[in-house]
Amino acid sequence: MTDNAEMIHEDGLPGHESQLEPKPEWQPRYSGSGRLAGKVAIITGADSGIGRAVAALYAREGADIAIVYILEDDDAAETKRIVESEGRRAITIKADVGSRKMCSRIVEETLTAFGKVDILVNNAGEQHPDKEITDITEEQLLRTFQTNIFGMFYMVQAVRPHLKSGAAIVNCTSVTMYKGSRELLDYSSTKGAITAFTRSLSENLIEHGIRVNAVAPGPIWTPLNPCGGASEEKLATFGEDTPIGRPGQPNEVAPSFLFLACEDASYMTGQVLHPNGGIIVNG
Predict the structure, then answer these.
(1) pLDDT tens across 36-46, in order?
(2) Exposure of 12 by Cβ count < 10 A (0-12 exposed, 13-18 middle, 19+ buried)?
(3) Is residue 13 situated within a structural domain?
(4) 3-class DSSP state for residue 93?
(5) Could you tell me how far CA 240 lies from the centroid of its own chain?
């Protein structure tokens, strides 16, 4: 684990998974088949929620994992334990993806530990609910964009020289990009940017044999929402407005990240998968 040399500011988000009840379900739902054997993946926001579930599934499929997180040391240590319990190697890197300098360090430490990078999962993100657009402070607006979309640019810029043909990038966008969110104006805006970034980057890198895709989860039970990322009113019925009628679990989203990272998706780039409980979106 690496200590930050710079001050990290975060308003209690994404929160500790270890303190959340009920606990999110991260456990892979099936036996591995070696689809990522010998691969190395960097996963941002991998200490909890969707990131932890992706790390667990990738490890089961044979990948070594660089676990990038911002605050929750205990959650990151638990994700590391989970990866190692699958027989794979793991390192934890405490860093803010909103800093270009730290993103370069993330890649450097991954290369030092594992010698290469095959997969980048841009999953880290933050959200802050506001009922009125006038309630969004300049600091919050800048911070949300810095983490959610600037961080993806910084991570790709840092890792790009080390990605070879056959590598994959998987970005985390959101159902809010497609249907909007009245309380998450800045967050949903960044998710729109992420989708456009995914489509554009896929065209930019395809001639180099690097695929770029995204996953757009619906309401998923992770620390992000109950620890301040959603209003109390929204939490009271969280996920109930989906056709399935409940929030999803992280291990119901992770298979989308696996599919896009492995050779099963060799003919897919610039695309978005939608594990969202049955919400119909176009795109």
Answers:
(1) 999 999 999 99
(2) exposed
(3) no
(4) strand
(5) 23
| Count of structural domains within the chain | 1
What number of other Cβ atoms are within 10 A of residue 167's Cβ? 22
- Residues tagged active-site: 187
In a domain, 11, yes or no: no
Domain that includes residue 219, residue range? 32-273
Q: Per-residue pLDDT tens for 5-48?
A: 343 444 445 555 555 556 788 999 989 999 999 999 999 999 99
Task: Evaluate whether residue 187 is within a structural domain.
Answer: yes
CATH label of the domain that carries residue 247: 3.40.50.720
The structure's pTM equals 0.90
Cβ-proximal residues to 213 (8 Å cutoff; 6+ apart), any chain: 168, 169, 170, 171, 198, 202, 260, 265, 268, 269, 270, 271, 272, 273
Residue 236: predicted pLDDT: 61
Q: Return the structure tokens found at 281.
A: 């979106």
Residue 262 lies in a domain: yes
- Check: CB of residue 97 under 8 Å from CB of residue 154: yes
Reported residue count of the chain is: 283
Distance, in Å, from the CA atom of 32 to the CA atom of 49, rounded to the nearest integer, reads 20
The per-residue pLDDT for range 162-186, each reduced to its tens digit, is 999 999 999 999 999 999 999 999 9
3-state secondary structure of 23: coil
